[in-house]
Amino acid sequence: MTMKRNSVEPFLCFARFCLFIWILISPSHTFGNWMYLGVSSITAPRDNICNNFPGLVDQQKSLCLQNPQALRGVREGAKKAIYECQAQFSSERWNCTLSSNYSVFGHVLKKGTRETAFIYSILSAGVVHSVTQACTAGNLTTCTCDVSAREGEHTVEGWKWGGCSDNVKYGIEFSRQFVDASESTRSEKSENIRNRMNLHNNEVGRKIVAELMKFRCRCHGVSGSCAVQTCWKSLSDFRTIGETLKQKYEAPIRIARRSLRTLKRAEKTKRRVPISYTELVYVHRSPNYCRANRKRGILGTKGRECNKTSSGSDSCDLLCCGRGYNTQVVRLVERCECKFIWCCYVKCKTCETLLDKHTCK
Amino acid sequence: MRTLNSLLIMLILLIWYGEGKKTKLKGIRWWTLANIGKPSNDLRSNTQLYNSPSLLPLTKKQRKLVTKHPGTISALQNGARMAIDECKFQFRNRRWNCPTQDVGNGGPIFGKILDKGNRETAFIYAITSAAVTHSVARACAEGSIYSCSCDYNLKQPSGKDWEWGGCSDNAKFGHKFSRKFVDVLEKGRDFRYMMNLHNNEAGRVHVSKEMKKGCKCHGMSGSCAIKTCWMRLPSFRDVGDRLKDRFDGASQVISGNEGSRILGNRPNTGRKKKRYKSFQFAPVNPNHKKPGRRDLVYFDSSPSYCEKDTSIDFPGTYGRECNATSIGIDGCDLLCCGRGYVSKSYMVRERCSCIFRWCCDVKCEVCTRTKVLHTCK
């Protein structure tokens, strides 16, 4: 008996160790998996898409089953957000690199850097934006225009509420349930600072969409005069939201790793100052993204095109990290001086221009 | 017999090696002029200087040239100092911060990096020859060189109410003199010499082809009814900025396919001229732009300058001051090569909130502020 026990124990121990390691590692593999909706190619939700789609947690699956049309909204939102992220960071050292696997952004999500904060906030903002738009367009059966602001706004100027306001409340609520689901299920195991950082940043994205709602009016008096107006609140375009979030990205708050109930700033002198939902938070410092590091999923800035005359982040000096740049002469052949000739064709000349193209060493 | 033979060979090798070293380092010795005394316009004090060989870290040809044009020695001193200052300024935020060493007369001021062929070497050569051009051209116009004067040939068609007539900086003379003085050291047919010649010329072109028009009005009450105009040199900071730009975009080259046309079919042109125009550089990557006359060229890639490098006498970036908030090359992240940095706060007593009181003194308070100094580990 003792012999047997002795032989089994190391095995058990090993198995436990393996389980422990698996628990440790597994969350990082499922990071942000719902974002994959943004790059996958689903066109119409099928019956089994909710269950078979990789990386959706249970709550997301049930949401999807309840409201299959909304998944398309989520997908559009994720797509929009990824596209916007790449547009906003096209001239930075980290240019919103996508990876080819299910986690979409790859290694950058493993650490809680500023970049991660931006990704989470813009993706949750994207979901709010798309779902809200889908509401207004009537694509979802569970929601419609926001009519709460409609009554009693008949002022002297002669306009009144009456339009179909974008139902941002529904969008936000949906985003809260759907996007935050992947964080809350994991936090059961351990009160992870990363989960709370992500939740905070998700909320920041949503708040920004609500904050940037605009007031729009349309005149329909006689001859289009503004004697009679209909006004409604609408979402601002996603570029504006992206720009605002980019500004938040420039000045984020670093939080302490051990924040007990509420998030606390890492800077000791400012511990008492509360962190509001208007600012992004991060835990880890970002690397400089200068040199390629395959292990950490950094591509480096070698070979990136830079702007010689600018002084911003796309300047050759900053983008190339002081390594200097190579110059190529590119011959650009374009159609130019096009003329319309009656009737009906357009005649163009071909112009050649020589351009200098600078790429980092 | 055999031992004697091998000894002889070794001796020859040693002499050859020593000589090779000498010729390599000889070229740069004139830069130590920067360390000699204060430059002054007084020519008589310099007559002593250029005649005494112990003081002059110059080659024979250079000494001849300096004696032929009295007064250039102080311009050269000035130029060497300008070049060193400018190099230090342009590279103050970079890992390689243009370190110089004071080794007395005859030593290489910039150290062993001059034996390499990387971008930094290219910059040093360009900025020094540019500085000679600049300061000699300026000294001509100032009248402190005997054999040259203002350039009165630089005339463009006069305008309605102004005319040419001012004393233009003599960039032509400066260019020529710098060619004779600086390039005299690059005698070989080696690729490195060709690189140095090219970079020297690039530095000079950045001075002499960037002249600007300056005018002065001297009508009644300073109005511009009458103007005199002349061409003046760009400020040396401008030259440094431009060269730094070229440094960033310098092209790595190999010897071109066309080869050098030194034995070309233009027998009547002078020997010197051929050397400047005929050597062909081709970029290492054929897709890149061919280096132009103003571009800097190099063939060795630079080290990262993070760690101590004895082959170029570079101490590494240990202990360098860095900027904690910047993401550029002066930021702690890049400058310290990821080793991290030490922050130290210190108190500074400064004069502050100064008020001017009638009449005439300024009263200040003394403030103490804490500043933070970040240095690389």
From TrEMBL, chain A:
<dbReference type="GO" id="GO:0060070">
    <property type="term" value="P:canonical Wnt signaling pathway"/>
</dbReference>
<dbReference type="InterPro" id="IPR018161">
    <property type="entry name" value="Wnt_CS"/>
</dbReference>
<dbReference type="InterPro" id="IPR043158">
    <property type="entry name" value="Wnt_C"/>
</dbReference>
<keyword id="KW-0964">Secreted</keyword>
<dbReference type="GO" id="GO:0005109">
    <property type="term" value="F:frizzled binding"/>
</dbReference>
<dbReference type="GO" id="GO:0045165">
    <property type="term" value="P:cell fate commitment"/>
</dbReference>
<dbReference type="GO" id="GO:0030182">
    <property type="term" value="P:neuron differentiation"/>
</dbReference>
<dbReference type="Pfam" id="PF00110">
    <property type="entry name" value="wnt"/>
</dbReference>
<keyword id="KW-0272">Extracellular matrix</keyword>
<dbReference type="GO" id="GO:0005615">
    <property type="term" value="C:extracellular space"/>
</dbReference>
<dbReference type="GO" id="GO:0005125">
    <property type="term" value="F:cytokine activity"/>
</dbReference>
<keyword id="KW-0879">Wnt signaling pathway</keyword>
<keyword id="KW-0217">Developmental protein</keyword>
<keyword id="KW-0449">Lipoprotein</keyword>
<comment type="function">
    <text>Ligand for members of the frizzled family of seven transmembrane receptors.</text>
</comment>
<dbReference type="InterPro" id="IPR005817">
    <property type="entry name" value="Wnt"/>
</dbReference>
<comment type="similarity">
    <text>Belongs to the Wnt family.</text>
</comment>
<protein>
    <recommendedName>
        <fullName>Protein Wnt</fullName>
    </recommendedName>
</protein>
<keyword id="KW-1015">Disulfide bond</keyword>
TrEMBL record, chain B:
<dbReference type="InterPro" id="IPR018161">
    <property type="entry name" value="Wnt_CS"/>
</dbReference>
<feature type="signal peptide">
    <location>
        <begin position="1"/>
        <end position="20"/>
    </location>
</feature>
<dbReference type="InterPro" id="IPR043158">
    <property type="entry name" value="Wnt_C"/>
</dbReference>
<keyword id="KW-0964">Secreted</keyword>
<dbReference type="GO" id="GO:0005125">
    <property type="term" value="F:cytokine activity"/>
</dbReference>
<comment type="similarity">
    <text>Belongs to the Wnt family.</text>
</comment>
<keyword id="KW-0272">Extracellular matrix</keyword>
<dbReference type="InterPro" id="IPR005817">
    <property type="entry name" value="Wnt"/>
</dbReference>
<dbReference type="Pfam" id="PF00110">
    <property type="entry name" value="wnt"/>
</dbReference>
<dbReference type="GO" id="GO:0005615">
    <property type="term" value="C:extracellular space"/>
</dbReference>
<keyword id="KW-0879">Wnt signaling pathway</keyword>
<dbReference type="GO" id="GO:0030182">
    <property type="term" value="P:neuron differentiation"/>
</dbReference>
<keyword id="KW-0449">Lipoprotein</keyword>
<keyword id="KW-0217">Developmental protein</keyword>
<keyword id="KW-1015">Disulfide bond</keyword>
<protein>
    <recommendedName>
        <fullName>Protein Wnt</fullName>
    </recommendedName>
</protein>
<dbReference type="GO" id="GO:0005109">
    <property type="term" value="F:frizzled binding"/>
</dbReference>
<dbReference type="GO" id="GO:0060070">
    <property type="term" value="P:canonical Wnt signaling pathway"/>
</dbReference>
<keyword id="KW-0732">Signal</keyword>
<dbReference type="GO" id="GO:0045165">
    <property type="term" value="P:cell fate commitment"/>
</dbReference>
<comment type="function">
    <text>Ligand for members of the frizzled family of seven transmembrane receptors.</text>
</comment>
